[in-house]
Amino acid sequence: MKPDLHAEVNKNSAFLDRELSQLMFNRRVLAQAEDKSIPLLERLRYLCIASSNLDEFFEVRVASLLAAGAADGTLSTHPALVATLSRISNECHALVSHQYELLNTEILPEMAAKGIHLVRHNERNDAQRAWVKEYFDTEVRPLLTPIGLDPAHPFPQVVNKSLNFIVQLGGKDAFGRGTGIAIVKAPRVLPRVIRLPDHLSKNGGISFCLLSSVIHAHISDLFAGREVIGYSQFRVTRDSDLWVDEDEVKNLRQALKGELVGRQFGASVRLEVAKNCPPELSQFLLDQFGLHQSRLYAVNGPVNLVRLNEIMDHVENPELRFPPFFPGFAQKQVNQDIFVALRENDILLHHPYQSFQTVIDFIRSAAHDPSVVAIKQTIYRTGMNSDLMESLITAAKLGKEVTVIVELKARFDEEANINWADKLEQAGAQVVYGVVGLKTHAKVALVIRREDKKLRYYAHLGTGNYHPTTTKFYTDFGLLTCHPGIAQEVNEVFIHLTSLTKPHHLTHLWLAPFALQNEIIKAIRNEARIARAGRPGRIIVKINALVDESVIRALYAASKDGVKIDLIVRGACMLKPGVPGLSENIKVRSVIGRFLEHSRIYYFRNDLEHDTYLASADWMSRNLFRRIEVAFPILDKALKRRVMAEGLSPYLKDNQNAWELEPDGHYQRRKARGKQATFSAQQHLMETLGTPNGHLGD
């Protein structure tokens, strides 16, 4: 990216551009794919992640900007928006070009050197071509439906991010007409990466071809008697937000079910074609989708890089992957009764370095424990398969009072959540869909147990989702506690969400949208007050995004008063660090490594009180004002030290995976200097908290 792009936008602003900052995050992910110290297949995975991130950026951020421009006129009536979209387009085109250059000049050649071949049509030998021809005839051609465009066959509906082909034909059709354009949809049931038989590979290696390459090679077979003049694969990206007026619908679940179908055909926001696509065909497609030329991406390779992930399913060479990692456990005696353990001490979990199985066991034990009378839980993302959800269903069938707050509008997880809501209701659980107009993003669970003729509350509060897969790859903290104040306030949150009444005054939990933003700013201002009095003011925060302007202004003010502030922000950050007179006491870094940094930690020194909060919320306006979020304190001094030692200090020392934000919006990778040893926070935590070879030990 040109070095003046951020400066052009932000030289007179106190804030960095949000969209460009988000794209800078993708640059950092792509840098992992460039890093030759990372195993080769993991580099390919990072390339796929960067492509997936860019897909979502178009589906959500670009789509929302375009929708805003269309809401009250045309884009031409919004010059600032047009300028923003132009900057985004320039950066996205540069990113995409870099992705394919990296794929074609480094990753694919290095894979070939390791015996993993992605074979294009012009690279196949006669035996490989014969096999591909037979595969096309038997597996592909029967599923294809070429559509010649004419008044009876108008341009077909094209599903979001699906693989398609446009073909330009010469001559006459079977009825003597000169229909010149045809569309071919690739069957969604077929794999996009096809492994050739091993005997067709060189020197005992593995060979693959892409479905797009197979269809390209034999596309003329679909149009007997016609000349194929030109053709190209293409893919359109669409607006993927679900638009439901919650105030107008009587049944949100049924309304969303209907919208899920329509999501595949939202407004078009991007068109991808092959680099050699004839200009008249790409323009025809742009016209069909109502897109400007700037939203055309002509790529040197497959239009969907994410699908290259499928290669990794076929390659077993461990040298090309990260070494296996086995999480540790929170307790030495893993089989100890969880409720007995919690009555002795709170349990702090740090995923994925420590197993999420402890949380699953907590809910499973509650489901089968005859002393447990009720279980309550929020669900934002949990996936299609979940032992935890099955335990809730079991608990309901066993007659326990089970209440589940299911967020139906968790983007891209709506279908899974609707399915779980159906199953839970069928089992007898009480299912609630949160609050109209607000997403329930808090991650909390509550178990109520009858002990000695009284009810005792046990709670789990976390920074991440109750998702069996992401807990293995996302860094998150979770707290299991039976602290009366915290656990009973968790129950108050559930009563608030189900009854829609105003929550009682909470002394431990910070709840959005009512108090979280106010409490954050109050804590920041308290550090500023301490600094003005001549004592050390200190703030350390680890979050995924910082874009709320009210919080950023409070941090600027605290910096001017002398508070030392370190911000560990994985993704978008609109705060400008290190600006004299504005933010010279603020440093911002981003850590990109093997695991996705996802935990949210707020630390305020507060005259050695060391106030430490874990939270579900990033510092974004949507989290602070348009979602149900919970920040919860760590009260035990030993656990506070653990949060600092595991969640903050290593990331401030990292000189391998850390990037430092400069005032102009660019990031520089932090490197070891002089005799300084290389240090990776994630590697340190794997070695410190993990279990060698998966053995639990004594």
UniProtKB/TrEMBL annotation:
GO terms for molecular function: ATP binding; metal ion binding; polyphosphate kinase activity. Its cofactor is Mg(2+). It is an enzyme of class 2 (transferase). Residues 128-310 form the Polyphosphate kinase middle domain. It catalyses: [phosphate](n) + ATP = [phosphate](n+1) + ADP. InterPro entries: PP_kinase (IPR003414), PP_kinase_C_1 (IPR041108), PP_kinase_middle (IPR024953), PP_kinase_middle_dom_sf (IPR036830), PPK_C_dom2 (IPR025200), PPK_N_dom (IPR025198), PPK_N_dom_sf (IPR036832). One of its GO terms (cellular component) is polyphosphate kinase complex. Residues 337-501, 509-682 form the Polyphosphate kinase C-terminal domain. Keywords: ATP-binding, Kinase, Magnesium, Metal-binding, Nucleotide-binding, Phosphoprotein, Transferase. It comes from the Bacteria. An intermediate of this reaction is the autophosphorylated ppk in which a phosphate is covalently linked to a histidine residue through a N-P bond. The keyword Zinc does not apply. Its EC number is 2.7.4.1. Residues 15-119 form the Polyphosphate kinase N-terminal domain. Mg(2+) binds at R381, R411. ATP binds at N53, Y474, R570, H598. Belongs to the polyphosphate kinase 1 (PPK1) family. HAMAP family: Polyphosphate_kinase. Catalyzes the reversible transfer of the terminal phosphate of ATP to form a long-chain polyphosphate (polyP). This is Polyphosphate kinase. The lineage of its organism: Bacteria, Pseudomonadati, Pseudomonadota, Betaproteobacteria, Burkholderiales.
